[in-house]
Amino acid sequence: MIVATLPPLSERALASELVQYTLTAGSVRFSPVPGLNFAGLGFNGTIPGPLLRVVHGQRLRAKFINKTGQGSTIHWHGMILPNKMDGSEGVTQPAVPPGGSFLYEFSPEPPGTRWYHDHVGDGLLRGLFGMIVVEDPRDQRADAEFALVFHDVPKMATVEPAMMGVGSAPMVDPLGSPELTEMAPDDKMGDEVAFSAHCINGASYPNTKRLAVKVGQHVRLRILNANPTQTRYVRLAGHRLIVTHSDGNPLPAPVEVDALRVGVAERYDAWFEVGAPGAWLLQGLSTDPFAYEQAAVVHTEGMENAPPLSSPQSLEGADYFTYLKAGGTGSAMPPQGVKHYDFILDDGKYGSSRWTINGQTYPNTPRIDVRRNDLVTVRFTNKTDMDHPMHLHGHVFEVTEADGVPLARPLPKDTSLVRANDGTLSWRFRADSPAGRWLLHCHNAIHMMDGMMTEVVYAI
Ligand SMILES: [Cu+2]
What we know:
With 460 residues, the chain is mostly beta strands. The protein has six helices and 30 strands.
């Protein structure tokens, strides 16, 4: 199990200019709950993989050894890095074959809570992911800090039917969530993956690691949703959370909420004050009968065995994080960039296995061709009945509009939820990353594999 607590980095680690890791991907028998024996894949023998840490300015050298028996790569999600280090199979590198290795080396940019994962086939679904923290020396110091990967064990037998559009997994959004409240009567159910366990850092409640805090402490949580298909809402009973970073990037202004809304592949940094002695559950909310497993106890000294205060598996009456709450309502719609793209996210009729951009599946989707320093704007319109967590490799974009409302303060992100049933979302980014081919895709693993993907391509 990976350790949740982030101790201060040693003088020696801070003094070094190069941080080296070896990441060996291989089979893992994963049993977070009794009776479950998941044939997983993991880095260095664990799901999730080890927590990697560098200080902004240090160079990362990660030797990847593939012992999975299938092709694999490592994608460094949220990083601006040389294109050949991006780990996109078939785009920036061929898959590393079974028994092969690859050296990833770059200076991690920008600082913040980021992650790494397989970018070939089903590796991410089976457990090839982990968090990487690029410490920002300018950050406000936390009295305690916890790195928490929220992840779930997929029923692999439901993956193929989901891709074929004939699955029968139930919708598990918590009551009061937008996907559930905005469902139309004829919306499809059951076209996604089902899960057999819900975890935080490789364990399920009550075996999750307890998070020890002290009264008066200012505590930082770094939270990643590594679920391949589902948005996760996260709540700490008895506390409001102050969100400071989205996808590792500082928000224009902190925002205080009851719950986080963490789309697939998103990260949030959230803080809370320990006002009094106690024990409280930090929970991932959903309507799955086993949702209670995705929880960890936060407690003060001597309270580790006290019955923890918990939250209902519902968002009714809860003030949860939205882009509009974080960005505020602006006065005018964002102007279009030099290059502007309107992308309609859609799919075929029921039973289809196609998830499309402007009617096409990758690689036939319209691609974004840029010249250096072009200002690019993209507006997504979601004609489907599911949210789409759209991700761009190698860039930080700004969300400038959501559901027809311009944001007063654009939000810097690398993954953003385009809401179901005619939701819209606008991005703005500068084409100033290293030249190459950068994938732009839905991070729902099923939608990505079924074609909802394109590329941003730099003219040489
Ligand atoms: Cu999608």
